[in-house]
Amino acid sequence: MANYLISGCTGYVPDDGITAQQMLNCGDGLTYNPTPKNYQHILSLVFAVKEINENPKILPNVSLGFHIYDSYLNARMTHQNTMKLISTDKRIAPNFKCEKEKHLIAVIGGFDSEISLHMATQLGIYKIPQIAPVMNTNMKFPSFYRMVPNEGHQYRGIVRLLQHFQWTWVGIIASDDGDGERFVQTMMKMLSKHGICTAFSKKIVMYISTAITISSQIGKVKEGEGLLMNEIISLINSEVRVYVLHAEVKTTTCLKWMIFLHMVLEGNTETSAGKVWIMTVQWDFSTMAIQRALDIGFFHGALSFAIHSKEVMGFPEFLQFLHPDSQKGDDFIRIFWEQSFGCLFSDSDEDKENGNTCTGQEKLKDLPGTVFEMSMTGQSYSIYNAIHAVAHALQKMCPFRPSHGTIENKCRLFPPNLQSSQLHPFLKSISFNNSAGDLVSFDKEGQLAGGFDLINWVTFPNQSFIREKVGMMDPLAFPGKEFTINEEAITWHSMFNQVVPLAVCNDHCHPGHRRKKKEGKPFCCYDCHPCPEGKVSYQKDMDDCLKCPNGQFPNKNKNHCFPKNLHFLSFEEPLGIILTILALCFSLITVLVLRMFIKNKDTPIVKANNRDLTYSLLVSLLLCFLCSLLFIGQPQIVSCYLRQTSFGLVFSVAVSCVLAKTITVVLAFMATKPGSRMRKWVGKRLANTIVLGCSLIQASICAVWLSTAPPFPHLDMDSLAEEIVVECNEGSITMFCCVLGYLGFLATVSFLVAFQARKLPDIFNEAKFITFSMLVFCSVWLSFVPPYLSTKGKYMVAVEIFSILVSSSGLLGCIFFPKCYIILLRPELNNKDQLRRRN
Asked: How does DSSP assign 661-696, residue by residue?
């Protein structure tokens, strides 16, 4: 039977008579770490070796043994004990193997990365496989294997956790060493990349001399002279609610003492009220002997990442039968027993006056979880898997072969001079399912292939706690599903009332506002400013406001866009109804006047100044009133073609008729002078020529306009905030101005001619009325320009309709009202003799 040796380096260190006055020294030098809970790591190693040796299917005829050395978390002790591993039991003599029956096949390293580095430096020379549950990825040794997943997955898990709860203002706490510096630099870079700010990064350095008692230290702190005052104030009293803790043993131990000192100083048992702790893989509720009385409530609701683990069958039963006298060769168990149960054995050399006597019948299950747990912790699970990894690698070196047709498997391939370096090819390619059903294998970098569990820690006043698995970071999952979390299963600190805590530099900017960076502050600190007009923000903390899509407008709170309504002058709205009624009324009046004039066509007052021109003027005024209806309703292609062109054309006819009537009056009086040659110009031919000629010029302008750049329907999205203006785009502004300009030119000429003829004698002279009517006409269209240019949408159209109606009614009233008065109310004046007599 071959014997192979697996050596381990445990983090458990016995309490070597330390007293309350010999406090933890977190600086360099010999470090006492009396943590009974770490004894489970030794027991998991013992249990794994025992399980393998008792299993006939694994390494038959081969026995695994082990030696356990304590590093004391000290470089000198680590170096010395590592030299013992590669030497004989009697003395340190490297490169000499005097005990041929024992073969060192692998080394299980401790949890401290610095200690593992010291060991790997020496063991790497001999290519001895070293398997350690450490996260330090900077160690690049071919013979070094990590029984933990890639540390990068943990970093990404922390970032995803912070992103899930939208925590953007966090503090980082790490140890003041190389690992802590690397953790801080890596985390700050990743957090900044994902929009998360670091409020502070604190490296814990707590030097408390072993010669200073707790009371003297507290006294100095109260006086403001203690070395921890700044750390306590910045960490405990900080407004930061979320802390990311690099949870190595030294860091967590020092942090506990800092919180304890703060509790003593402030008399506040709710030290961590309003704090959320996010711990790395190294975290566990492990309490030193002198820390047992410390309250663990400040870590209630904490979240930590842990190596994925399952319950190992048989391990709780193994612990139940553990007895101080049952483990032969175990120098740690009696010390562990005394520390855990606070008693002394009868044969102990310690002073028993104030201590209880250990009976050996105490039950481990009665210990609080901070001292010892009956279920295997994640760190112990890593050691358990490490032992099985070595055993399965040895099994791959020695395949099972049936012997003489029997079912007995024998290993016949082990050479007598087997070297530990021969294990590497098999260890690198190892892949098996452990007794808990988990797959154990290494990736190409020598790290455990797998992910991390997310644990929620629920504490109780009796120092007990519960680990609640609430999520997982699984890099092997489908893309987008690597990080999962059950938010409903999380128990938060009682101060949060089961409401997800907020961790932001300042309050969120609500929708309708945008963030503006504060000068001199990290990018997570900002002021909130309302969105400018026409812009919205749909979500919290938007860096800039956005314009609504075309056809939509922002609401009053500027946090949502609504579809815009179509904006045009409708026949159904009050303004459109009023203008329509006015247009129809004036049209009806014009028709009645025309009917009256036709009925009295043979009377002197109708026959005066060219009866046909009067009819033409009334018809054109009727068309002017009716063309205003083209401006009401939703613009269409046909209505846009006809609006301005029909308006310009019919008004040109009307003004041409007025001009012709005025010129006829002037020529008629000039023709009465003796010897005047103007008689040949007096008559219908000249009047018709003026009307047709002036109208044809306007018609030509409109024809060119329609053939080159005609008006067309257009949707104006920007003029009005909440509506889409449906309008007729004029196509060519130049042609539109030509139409209006020519109309203005005719009106000006008509006014000037009528003004010159206003004092000509004769009752039939219409020059006075034409002068006044053209004055009204020109005044209306001159006052039309400013409001037309200053209004938008349907109101601009309403201004033009109003100008059409007023100017047309001005012509109708000023020219025809006096004649209608005589025809209807003073018919006795409507005869030639009476008119001459009055004249």
From this structure: HHHHHHHHHHHTSTT-GGGGG-SHHHHHHHHHHHHH
